[in-house]
Amino acid sequence: MTEQRQDNRPPPPTPPSRRSQRRQTVAELRSQGRAGPGLRDILPGFLGMVLVTAGPVVGLAWLYRAYGVGALLLGALLLAAATLIGVPWRRAVVRRRGGRYTPAELAVLDDHGLAVAAERILRRDGWHVLPMPDDGRPRLYARDRRDRRLDVSFRPVDGGPGTAEPPGGPATLREPGGPADDRVIRVVISMGAYSPAEIEWASRPGGDHLVDGRQLQQWASGTSLDALGLLN
User: Fold this and answer.
1) Which residues make beta-bridge pairs with 75?
2) Are 226 and 232 in contact (CB under 8 A)?
3) How many helices (H) does the chain have, and how many strands (E)?
4) Residue 190 contacts by C-beta under 8 Å, 6 or more apart in sequence?
5) In the prediction, which pLDDT does 15 show?
6) Cα 126 to chain center, whole Å?
7) Distances in Å between the alpha carbon of 146 and those of 59, 91, 132, 159, 176?
8) Per-residue pLDDT tens for 85-94?
9) What is the pLDDT of residues 143-192, one digit of tens each?
10) Residue 211, SS3?
11) Which of 18, 89, 108, 164 is 20 to 30 Å apart from 10, CA to CA?
């Protein structure tokens, strides 16, 4: 009887294989957001890298077979020239998208280009930015993690002090669906300098914070508005 009962017992569960354990571990890590990128995530970038690396080699080999050594040398020179020009250009594009501009790059911006640069710089410093044009003129609304709020307007690049609205004008920006907020910090950005009258107007209690061309260059190079003393 004892032997018969032992024979009727279910077999012990089979321990999971290493492969199934690894899959379960990876699934748990992904659910927690701690797993690295999967094959689907890295495959497009890997294929792009292969094409960028192998493409020129295949092209040079084709030139050599089709037209000889002269075409090969000419293709190599063109490839080297394209690399010398393209790599710095690509780095500059990535740098500007990250919110860093050189004085020379700022000098060639128009009004809307300056607004795009300011939006990128604010995002670089951790601000959440919402473009809200005012009668066709660029204007930005920004908020940071400390719940500080900015109303950023711009004085025309090619205009003088008399061509822009007074920098100390009333705050007309409103949050979507909400009333005007007196806690909004008004900032006016200009590529040039402000007149003494503008500075005096902005220095009154509750006035605007003026960013002139010199401060703009420092801000665009990596210095935050707080470090510039503009939001204190």
Assistant:
1) none
2) yes
3) 8, 5
4) 154, 155, 210, 211, 212, 213, 216
5) 65
6) 10
7) 54, 32, 21, 34, 20
8) 878 888 998 9
9) 999 899 999 999 876 544 433 444 444 333 333 333 345 578 899 999 98
10) strand
11) 18
